[in-house]
């Protein structure tokens, strides 16, 4: 029943597009898969695109926040892209702050932002 | 008009089932995407609270009407330990689970009406309603 989220490598970056509503197990498996992929590819950055996601609850937000911090520990920067208006509104109303998280409007902007960050 | 449907919350998969049911019902009532997200998120939080704190319970979703107003009511009930200090759980940032679940203040902000009935040692019933504007 559990689906695994594909993780693609492009030059120094990993690209992830989350296409389905995340259940708890898929979210936790993704956390481990992403870190394992960072380890094996030595990628320096990750773009995590959430365009198709139409809601994020506190659990998914915590898993995403954790994976960003964990990636940071492994020396990789994460950019989140494609957060829909409804998702931004509900996250803030729910009281969730994703602090120190780099975001961009879409995948293209996200990759550019990541490449700039990696140059610094 | 009083359409109701419900999901028993026993495993974490039931949290997914409850919020999918909620989203479908919210669409059916005619809520826009932002309110659909609010309702889906609120149901997810309430279902997770049941799973984490009570072990099992039930999420009931009712299409309701009051005069010309249409709305969706979510009733989360369990026979868990109950809440010892309701005022405390309604404070932002209060948690007994190490930060899983954004807590009830968040759910209250996402919905229009919010009511808790809890008896310590017997269980909790939380009712939250969103009105179609």
From TrEMBL, chain A:
It comes from the Bacteria. InterPro entries: Bact_StressResp_Reg, STAS_dom, STAS_dom_sf. Pfam families: STAS. CDD domains: STAS_RsbR_RsbS_like (cd07041). PROSITE patterns: STAS. Residues 3-114 form the STAS domain. This is STAS domain-containing protein. It comes from Psychrobacillus lasiicapitis.
Automatic annotation (TrEMBL), chain B:
It comes from the Bacteria. SUPFAM superfamilies: ATPase domain of HSP90 chaperone/DNA topoisomerase II/histidine kinase (SSF55874). InterPro entries: HATPase_C_sf, HATPase_dom. Residues 34-133 form the Histidine kinase/HSP90-like ATPase domain. Pfam families: HATPase_c. This is Anti-sigma regulatory factor. It comes from Psychrobacillus lasiicapitis.
